[in-house]
Amino acid sequence: MTYQLFYWPGLQGRGEFVRLVLEDVGAPYEDVARGPGGLDRMRAVMRGEGGAPLLPLAPPFLRADDLWVSQTAAITSFLGERLGLAPADEQGRLTARSLALTIADVVAEAHDTHHPVAVEKYYDEQREVAQARAASFRASRMAKYLGHLERTIERNPAGVLAGSDVSYADLSAFQVVDGLTHAFPRAMARLRPDLPRLHALRDRVAARPRLAAYLASERRLPFNLHGIFRHYPELDDPA
Amino acid sequence: MTYQLFYWPGLQGRGEFVRLVLEDVGAPYEDVARGPGGLDRMRAVMRGEGGAPLLPLAPPFLRADDLWVSQTAAITSFLGERLGLAPADEQGRLTARSLALTIADVVAEAHDTHHPVAVEKYYDEQREVAQARAASFRASRMAKYLGHLERTIERNPAGVLAGSDVSYADLSAFQVVDGLTHAFPRAMARLRPDLPRLHALRDRVAARPRLAAYLASERRLPFNLHGIFRHYPELDDPA
């Protein structure tokens, strides 16, 4: 079977967390909205047309034959547990699910650094508040979240977030580290000495053969000013 | 066995979503941090002491014998699926999980109406921005999220969010409706004519015998200015 991923074209966004899982396991998938007519197909599902049993509020959402699931962390845990990219034991699965949600939280906060007032308005309309919110994010939230991932890895002899091998949660951690490094290069350089295990895990994920091939391919879109992780130099640490 | 719920005492907060599930199924549980010495026990787990296999970043987290899970939506889906308060079929479970995360998103946005700049600062220090963020929340986000729940219920002949009977997702929807009604009574009154099915579901949940008893008990804390759903009249629709 071929999975169908529905996500906005032209940006990594939250869809990227799903892509990483599909690419790592080598699952055949259609990136629906990137194909001809795909955006219309995606919007039809969001209007409740076409018989999907679930009404998605927003992309990403996924079809796996007759099963549909939406919300990034629900999709990645579904795929990871189904495709062998999750811990096998129940505690490991619960830990991975908990961490996937913690990562979703930091992703949402990273988004809000450039949209602190209103998601429906442009960055330029909320630039001043964005600087205050980004300052708080860099000064306390980033260290809190990333330090938590670091400590979690430190407690696990396997050097991963959950279980005994790389899981979908680790792929999401990779994406967050790379995304934050793109958006806040100076702040991430400042924090780097405190996060050796997280960066080692990031490198380990990036070196997995299928992921390395994906990351070097044209399917991996570059970070840009439409996604979650945006590089506005004025939102980073002062030079 | 007795479940152990770890959450800050003195406020409903995100812990309430877990309490509602435990109360509805009649599961024995200890609300750890509300008991003598409980706050210290909770903080010890967060420091990684005491042998829990999972390091929680923040409350709520839950212990079920040897299993530990953190993050509100991960806890409620774990409990709901284990205790018969979730759809039995796989699609129903995926739908409930997706919706639990959508509800977590609106909860986070409701929180950010009073803390749009920095979670570590007081409301009074970000009151002006809070008014702009709350205006956006009331004008577009509330209707988007709640309208989505309304349409989801409308598509289901059972009149619930997922599956054929009330699930943990519906209990979370109840809490969001009551929380938003407390925080934004005027905005919620304005939206009410567009949300008949969501309000009917809210009433149906509140009338479940164990929940009705819980809601009338002293265990149910009142909404206050420490939780997520805070009533600051200046953040609501103009009178």
If you had to describe this structure to a student in words, what would you say it looks like?
Two copies of one chain form a homodimer. In chain A, 52% of the residues lie in helices and 6% in strands. Chain A has 239 residues and is an alpha+beta fold. A four-stranded mixed sheet of chain A has the order 2-1-3-4, with helices on one face. In chain A, α1 packs parallel to α3. The relative contact order of chain A is 0.14. At the A-B interface, β4, α3, α4 and α5 of A face β4, α3, α4 and α5 of B.
Concise synopsis of the structure shown:
2 copies of one chain form a homodimer. Chain A is of the alpha+beta class.
Indicate the overall shape of chain A. globular
Mean of residue pLDDT values of chain A: 97
How large a portion of the residues of chain A is in β-strands, by DSSP E?
5-15%
Distance between the termini of chain A: 50 Å
By DSSP, the count of extended strands of chain A is 4
How are the elements arranged and paired?
2 copies of one chain form a homodimer.
Chain A: E1 3-6, H1 15-25, E2 29-31, H2 38-46, E3 61-64, E4 67-70, H3 72-82, H4 90-114, H5 127-154, H6 168-183, H7 185-191, H8 196-206, H9 209-215
Parallel strand pairs in A: 1-2
Antiparallel strand pairs in A: 1-3, 3-4
Helix pairs in contact in A: 1-3, 1-6, 1-9, 3-4, 4-5, 4-6, 6-7, 6-8
